[in-house]
Amino acid sequence: MSVVSAEFLSSCSLFSPSFQKQPRVFRRSNRRNSPPVLVAEMVRVPHVLTVAGSDSSAGAGIQADLKACAARGVYCSTVITAVTAQNTVGVQGVHAVPEDFVGEQLKSVLSDMPVDVVKTGMLPSEAIVQVLLQTLDEFHCQALVVDPVMVSTSGDVLAGPSILSSFREKLLPKADLVTPNLKEASALLGCPQIQTLADMRSAAKLIYNMGPQHVLIKGGDLPASSDAVDIFYDGETFYELCSSRIKTSNTHGTGCTLASSIAAELAKGFPMLPAIKVAKRYVETALDYSKDIVFGNGPQGPFDHVIKLKNNISSPSRKLVFNPDDLLLYAVTDSGMNRKWNRSITDAVKGAIEGGATIIQLREKDTDTRDFLQSAKSCLELCRSHGVPLIINDRIDVALACDADGVHVGQSDMPVSVVRALVGTEKIIGVSCKTPEQAEKAWMDSADYIGCGGVYPTNTKANNITVGLDGLKKVCLNSKLPVVAIGGIGISNAHSVIEIGVPNLKGVAVVSALFDTECVLTEARKLHAVLSDAAK
Ligand SMILES: Nc1ncnc2c1ncn2[C@@H]1O[C@H](COP(=O)(O)OP(=O)(O)O)[C@@H](O)[C@H]1O
Ligand SMILES: Cc1ncc(COP(=O)(O)O)c(N)n1
User: For this UniProt entry, which residues form the secretion signal (predicted)?
Assistant: First the structure.
């Protein structure tokens, strides 16, 4: 692959110095005639406007553009040019939006929102192309990506030959990039079918001569090709962009997704060739992830842009809502104790669950990452089969990699607000707190529960300050979150902890009392009995 030249970078309008992203400071005042007040430093996010058709099956068109931009972390506004009735079988109907109303949508967005990149998809009539051209003359944007949608993957016509001359003569000369597939390239050129890489190169050059800055001929339909090869031409050099061809029929919307992902990367400030490479890799990854998902009865399914759908179905027994009562008997593992008693972490967890543990935390401070992940996966299987949540101590990466139910962090670990941003809204977050202030902060940062301790002196944590029953009570009374008590708790004192009688104290977390014993199951059973009795 050739290195991107400085000349190439400057030829891309997005690389001009005027396109450096700057946080904007907005000043507002709510009082008339008073000077503006600084309310917040607000950051403008990259913005793509897609001008395209709606696809009722949500695989292509506007819906694909929205999903792709969201997945690429870019804001996407939408101007709808047509409403189509389509599914995985084909296109059953097309209803073009009147051109005046397309113009009205364009004006609404562009007169108000600063758009970085305009991406076009289905433009069903010559009149709509004209309206778009007028608007592009009036409003400045940094780049225009034209996906010249004419025929759907199913072979149905989405825009007829009437649009061809204004595409060739007016729209393409304004485009920074045009992305025809093989059929669209031959329609633009009025030439017979394109069937080889050599044909694609010739087509790219001829289309480049119509005026766009760059051309990408997409080779999804290239016959007898074991790879998915696209040809990129910048007026000087041809680039063969190659990815593995994913064996799937879920390719509905690949063209729209590729073009809007390129637009998204351009909007972030990437130069053209890197933007295309990143977008192509994204399409390949999404196709691979979605290759075995069934969406409909037809031959052309959509794919999963956010690369997430399968996670949810693969874990049907996962609890979506945190239940504070699960904190009753909270078992926290310790690799040293498991070694001492010569048991695997999975056996330890199995004993705890069978004895009545209501939530499990894996706290592995000296285990290799690969081994930890493997153990976490086996423990998760075990926990899921018993409906018991699994929490990972500190290691957000391991929690995400095995799709555990949550994470527990301490005051010197990653801040809860950052953890929440990383793990998303559904995972449980617990945080260790010793003071009412820390408990308040945990709540503000959207933790789900707090662990308060050490209640009694303990050997499992070095230099741990003991808060005692008084400290525990004070934290509970000031905490809006449910609390689990931790530190030196076992059969002999669990009752006294629960007896402090504060409603949000939901249970006790134990390490040694369960795992530094000969039979985890027996100890768990005894503790569960004590706690259930105390909680009555
Ligand atoms: N089965 C596949 N595996 C990997 N990439 C593919 C596959 N099919 C299409 N692509 C890629 O998806 C992008 C869109 O191409 P294409 O399907 O030809 O566009 P369109 O949807 O407009 O017909 C291209 O980068 C192409 O190489
Ligand atoms: C509304 C609309 N726009 C575009 C396409 C092209 O889809 P593909 O990307 O699979 O060629 C489509 N089928 N429907």
Answer: none
Ligand 1 lined by 300 (C-beta under 6 Å): no
d(CA 331, CA 379): 13
Structure ipTM: 0.95
Taking alpha carbons only, the member of 214, 122, 137, 149 closest to residue 176 is 214
Which of the ligands is closest to the CA of residue 123? 2
Cα(399) to ligand 1 centroid in Å equals: 34
Beta carbon of 277 within 6 Å of any ligand 1 atom: no
Q: Measured in angstroms, how far is the CA atom of residue 457 from the centroid of ligand 2?
A: 65
Q: How far is the CA of 121 from the centre of ligand 2 (A)?
A: 8
- Verify cis geometry, omega within 30 degrees of 0, for the bond prior to 454: yes
User: Is the C-beta atom of 216 inside 6 A of ligand 1?
Assistant: no
Question: What spacing in Å lies between the alpha carbon of 291 and ligand 1's midpoint?
Answer: 13
Q: What is the pLDDT of residues 61-76, one digit of tens each?
A: 999 999 999 999 999 9
The C-alpha atoms of residue 383 and residue 386 are separated, in whole angstroms, by 5
Kind of pairing, strands 47-55 and 227-233? unpaired
Ligand nearest to the CA of 249: 1
Which is the closest atom of ligand 2 to the Cα of 300?
10
Q: Which atom of ligand 2 lies nearest, measured to the CA of 62? A: 1
Calculate the alpha carbon distances from 357 to 17, 141, 378, 497, 507 in Å.
60, 59, 17, 17, 11
Residue from 122, 147, 216, 262 to probe ligand 2 pocket by mutation (most atoms less than 8 Å from CB): 122
Backbone angles phi, psi at 163, to 5 degrees: -85, -10
318 Cβ contact partners less than 8 Å away, ≥ 6 residues apart = 384, 403, 405
The three-point CA angle 381-406-476 to 5° equals 130
pTM: 0.80
Structure token pair of residue 452: 């308060």
Nearest to 67 by CA among 288, 293, 308, 242: 308
Domains by residue range for the chain, with CATH: 42-312 (3.40.1190.20), 324-534 (3.20.20.70)
Provide the annotated active-site residues: 218, 251, 253-256
- 392-411 pLDDT, tens digit per residue, is 999 999 999 999 999 999 99
Nearest CA to ligand 2 atom 13: 152
The pLDDT tens digits of the residues spanning 312-323 come to: 665 555 666 799
| DSSP class per residue in 327-368 | GSEEEE--HHHHHHTT--HHHHHHHHHHHT-SEEEE--SSS-
* Most confident option among 37-46, 187-196, 478-487: 478-487
CA–centroid distance, 58 to ligand 2, in Å, is 10
Smallest-distance ligand from the CA of 121: 2
Asked whether the beta carbons of 138 and 118 are under 8 A apart, the reply is: no
Regarding the beta carbon of 148 and ligand 1, being less than 6 Å apart is answered no
Contact 236, 217 (CB under 8 A): no
- Specify whether the CB–CB gap between 485 and 509 falls below 8 A: yes
